[in-house]
Amino acid sequence: MKPPVFDYVAPTSIEQAWRLLELHGEGARLLAGGQSLMAALNFRLAAPGILIDLNNIEVLSGVRLEADGTLVAGAMTRHRFFETSALIRERLPLVHRAMASVAHVAVRNRGTLGGSLCYSDPSAEWPALCLACDAQVVVQGAGGVRRLAARDFLLNLFTTALAPGEILTEVIFPAWPRGRRWGFQEVSRRKGDFAIVGVACVLDIDAGGLCEDARIVVFGASDSPVLLSAVATGLARQRLGDAEVHRAARCARDAIECRSDLHASADYRSELVQALTTRALQQALTGPAPIPHG
Question: For a tag site, which of 65, 167, 250, 261 has the least CB within 10 Å?
Answer without folding.
Answer: 261
